[in-house]
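Reply to dn_fold:

You asked what the input looked like. This is it:
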Amino acid sequence: MVPTPAHSGLGDRLTYRHTEALPPGTLVRVPLGAREVVGIVWGTPATAPATPVRPITEAWQALPPLAPEWRELVGFAARYYQRSLGEVALAALPPALRELDATRLQRRLQRAPARVSPTAPSPAETPPALTDAQAAALAAIETVDQPILLFGATGSGKTEVYLQATARLLARDPQAQALVLVPEINLTPQLEQRFRARFGDAVTTLHSRLTPAQRLQHWLAAHQGHARIVLGTRMAIFASLPRLRLIVVDEEHDPSYKSQEGARYSARDLAVYRARLGADAGCRVILGSATPSLESWHAADSGRYRRVHMDDRMGGARWPRLRLVDLRQQPRGTLLAPPLQAAIEARVARGEQALVLLNRRGYAPVIACDACGWKSGCPHCSAHLVFHKADRRLRCHHCGHTAPIPRACPDCGNVDLAPLGRGTEQLEEQLAAALATLQRADGTPVRVGRLDADTSRARGALERTLQAVHDGAIDVLVGTQMIAKGHDFRRITLVASVNTDGALFASDWRAPERLFALLMQAAGRAGRDAAFVAAQGSAVELWVQTAYPEHPMFAALARHDYAAFAAQQLEERRSAGMPPFSHQALLRAEARQLEAALAWLRHAAEAAHDLPGRAHVMLYAPVPMALTRVAGIERAQLLLESPHRPALQALLAAWMPRLHALRGLPDTRGLVRWAIDVDPLSF
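and this is what came back:
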């Protein structure tokens, strides 16, 4: 099995010969055309080839073969997400591995560290006593033969459950391995610190910020069983872990677990499948969240998952009280309502911290001309160029195009151009100006910090900002959704969301679920240290600015009642026949001209008329995507929907050869690429 080029006409599995039988899973180097590539021995052909076959260049027998469970996982992912087997399997290997030969691989293996056993925790890191809810959760993890949906309130101690579940596993089985997934890279430093404090050098990481050499080193440690605990982002679901016995998916609701390019897989769903493959060996999977995805919640309602509740916050910490600011009663164009600004000033004056959420980076979403209505559009995308004041540039957040700010309107020559809307840069600037006259208890000026994709781009910047918050060097932290997830801030007593309404009436039917999760997660950053809050005599609060305070979502948010919100959302989806009560796939096409993409999709729909499962699958008309043009490429999509997952899968599998054959039709010239997205999260 080799990484054959897309649409090449080559199969996933090619036949080569070797002087001896090689076990399935052995890594090899083989000739492919004029080059050599890494391949994986997948098995022996049932019948002898009719034509001569080329020999394997070298077999890496010094490296243990990839386990059968790993190959089953890759095979399932390729079938379910409609990708080639070679694409999925070879993408799961570290890129640096593909550049090695047998000699260099041997040197690598000789330098690899020996197996590391978990160290005993230091006295400062002795595991704390468990709460009753934590003990019940651990008991369920060890005894229930189902995926565990750990429905734990923010600050309820889910991470300690993960730590102790891992510790108990390693105590029972000295060779066992555990995999802990987090949705985003910015959550790995804090979690890695806690796991290393408990387990020492038995912990390693796998994520895209590692250098190629580091990623190879960490992958080899996991593959050889030297690494007992692997922490990683979604890519780590394909890590080779031959003795995997525990999988943790933290913040399982997060859409970052769904890949949006290449093989569009869901790491959360593959974690459940991978645990099922290892069930005979006792592999367990924990899906943890304070706001579970509605798919997981429905799976627990229907008995496929076991839901375990952890309702109380640790140490008697209180839930933030919801304060709604009615923007209709505030001055027009208000970015930060006066009552909210006063509340932040009061917190800072008492030595507390505040977190302000605005899920839009940059200074302003667009620069506009009042005279003629011109707006700073991207020349390559159906999107606006965002104004970034720090470097005085306009930047597209989709294709990366940058441009200087024009001195005058390109259309009418008006020199009075103004920013429209607000981003985190502008909010940071306004807060810094508002708090400039305040001093902290030690007489130093109040400091406002910002955390978003712009400020965290430099190496180490994320860690430095988070550490400054933990050390109390930042009094008010402004940021995008990056600041709302998973961080254990101890002195924050006020969280505010200042631009909430866009998601209340978005065209995306998942928007309410995502907004509720974001606000609940953000609220969970406040009041985590009950002793600090009590000493300050403060009320823990979540402030939300909205022009629609009567919206029913806020009633559930005020009660911190995710169960009621989920029940209401699931009933709406049941009535509309939407996931999880139906199953969807998107066929996306990209071309230089939009009509070529739409024409190709129309041909694709016609080619599906007699396929297996067609009677149970609804094909909607092809339409342009919401963001139609990106980087000069026009994009369109066709939605498939069915109440029967097997019928949808049968149609997709039978459809693929016909889709490959459709390239080159006269009215589709200019087609760049197409792809199928199974269980899509974005439209």
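Residues 645-661 form the longest helix (17 residues).
Hope that clears it up.
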